[in-house]
Amino acid sequence: MRKILRGMTDTMNAVKPPRMTALRELHEAETGPFSILIGTILSARTKDEATTKAVKILFSKYKNPKELANAKVKDVEKIIKSIGFYHVKSKRIIEVAKIIHTKYKDKVPNNLDTLVELPGVGRKTANCVLVYAFEKPAIPVDIHVHRISNRLGLVNTKSPEDTEQELIKKIPKKYWIDINDTFVMYGQNICKPVSPMCDVCKIKKRCKLYKTKNVSL
User: Fold this and answer.
1) Is residue 25 a part of any domain in this protein?
2) d(CA 105, CA 17)
3) Quick check: 62 pLDDT over 90?
């Protein structure tokens, strides 16, 4: 796994160093677990640029769980209207804020089982919070991690949920924290769903998709 992660990073830096993912930006900015939780919920089916912009504006107005919990849905909608499914997500993040404020005294839970009990929080979102908010080993699997893991032959799975379980079995825990961030950037910039940039990829000899193209190895 170390060689795969390094190969991805070297490839991206050789082409053009990519911008950080939205969640990595939140982590680097030390915005705190609550903003990362809300940012992860908002990021579903949304481009990173839109997520980053919306989260910054949202938390410039609502600075903690209590303030967001007391926000009006229509006011939140105006702020995050560039986000996919913003009507649903506005209600959801207010609901989550209320739970974090009242049940958990403004502290975001730092374990998977408790996080997935929150409205709209599945395993991927919960694992993102563990990795980006608490730096705890976990493997958040989105479409990029799922696609690339299958292309590289790390797994042979049909769903992100199955991919997570297989990666947990096969990948040493010391690499878990780096998988999501690196794979997502690689999936956005190099190993795209359509027309992946195989010509520049430094790990293509590991890739099942590349081999099926009958390219000379």
Assistant:
1) no
2) 40
3) yes
